[in-house]
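Researcher: We're teaching a course module on how sequence relates to structure. For the next exercise, students receive a sequence and then see the predicted structure as tokens, so they can try to spot secondary structure elements on their own. Here is the exercise chain.
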Amino acid sequence: GAFINSVDPKDQDAQARPRFPRYFGVVVSAPIVEEFWKGIMVLGIAYFLKSEFDGVVDGVIYATFVAIGFAATENVLYYGRALAADDLGFTLVIRGIIAPWGHPLYTSMTGLAVGYAREQTNTAMKFILPVVGYLGAVFLHAMWNGSGLVCDLYGAPYVFFLLIPLWLIFVSAFVIMVMVLVHRRGRMIRENLVDEVALGYITQQELDLVTSAFGGLVAFTRRGRKGTDFVRAVARLGLSKWHTARAMKGSKSTVSMDFILPLRARIKKLRGEGASPA
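Model: And here is the predicted structure for the students to work with:
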């Protein structure tokens, strides 16, 4: 994690210790270890919750929640140390406002890669992609920690000329990535549900709502939890059909094929309960 104030300036023993081991731990060891364990959690979700893990968007979402949980736990330690060093205010700004955006971006590289691996039919790629994503997460994490190390060594001005611009780049990159992936997901769902409209399983209005960027929010506003369940069922039907089509094209099998008929039945049941928000 971010290491601002990781060494108490009043701690003479810590200041006297060789710098290289501390710097190596901050810039190299911490990113490798932290991203490894966060990545393991994302892989566990992808493996044990296949029915809930459809692709890159889910990968980024689950990775973000894993990273936020990790950052929140880590912050407790840093706040305690900052309080003891009488530097809580600065640490709250860095750790509580700036740094939390970092962890989701780092681990999203792993989540995106795991999600993309979920979409592949090539067995080798299913193993290679998560490793590549993990390395990307480590690189971004190390870049942030390295920039923070410069600020620790050379003073507050570097926070404004290095750390904050890098933070703006990270936040912008994360927002743009999410927007692109949500648009891609909507397009995939629409392409695979056109025949469902023709067959009468869903209406065109329902399809338009489900594939919109704020479909889930609109559904919740109109029908509450059942509306959200309806949108999720329709979206998952589209993604399941997409996985199935890709698997059949590559002469592979996929668990997604088994979800299609139950999802159609669930959509019909939810509509009968007045859950359709369209």
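Model: If you want an answer key for the exercise: Residues 1-17 have pLDDT under 50 and may be disordered. The chain is about 80% helix and 0% strand.
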